[in-house]
Amino acid sequence: MMTQSGAQPRVAFVHDYLNQMGGAERVLLAMHALFPTAPVFTTIAAPDRLIAEMRGLDIRVSFMQRFPGIAAHHQTYLPLYPRAIESLDLRDFDLILSSSSAFAKAAIKRPDALHICYCHTPMRWVWDYDSYIARESLHPLARAILPPVIDRLRAWDVATAARVDHFIANSPVVAQRIAIAYQRPATIILPPVNTRRFAIAPEHGDYFLALSRLIPYKRIDLAVRACTVLGLPLKVIGVGRDLHRLRSMAGPTIEFLGALPDETMTDVLAHCRALIFPGEEDFGLTPVEAQACGRPVIAFGAGGALSSVIPGVTGRFFHHQSVESLAGVLATFDDRAFDPQVIRRHAERFDISRFHRRMARFVHAALAGDLDLLTKPLVAMPRTA
Fold this sequence. Notes:
The chain is built from 16 helices and 13 strands.
């Protein structure tokens, strides 16, 4: 890829923070494969919490990396992230590719450089603050201090959207949020899954599965409580600050497996009756991974699941984020009604090879200033039934 002047662009990636491995980090890795020697700038990094592939990148951190307890208590330093992201020195780079659900899109570039932001969502906890903290156990002092901080961050988030030349959204829902929050259009390129990592198992077990970071807004509590009420076996993979609360509400049919190596996790996923996906996510890679194993998904019918699950074909939706609504679907769920091969073929629509082609096409058009190509659709959305 070349700039309009015909030179190879000097490329840098910017990511919010690298102290965990989640969907956004896997998308960053997939993007990075397009420019494998490019450095990754971020506010903080905790290499021991990253997979080996991520640790091998040229990661450059901000001044926040020196703060005491930053990896374990990064939320404490919330007011300082804007300054940290703006302190990153990107003067040497012609093309900035940010992977952002919070701060990365505000990185400061040269006036003649190009900034493309792959937006996982505008700051969820800024734009939907009340819903986000509804299930968080915050100290009363924090609840008193946070609202004015959030107000300032929201204003900063709007102002810094002007630093982005082109937005890419990871789903139609996020494209709508970008339009509302920033008054900007966004091209939709759905996130990637390396479907070759997954395969259909010859048989499956009798358990349902929840696979997630265990934090309140993921709503794993709905799966735990619904399966407890119905006496259905549920395995929960993941760790997080919500673990103690989830254990306290779990009945004898619930099994917490903690964090598992990728190979073991994939095996458990391939042998479940179905994946339960109870949160409202921006996109959510886990449902696609389950479908790459030929397993159906029971998802809350909102957010990113609308882009990845075809009701009646690759899974089912429950339509109210309540125990009763989920339990109603679980009580009548028959996994024999779903064809694993059909589910697998649907998942292949999200394969990483397609993501690479779409991203490369978009970046090439942006560097060339090809406005006509930039406005053409780069992704066909899954059909719904």
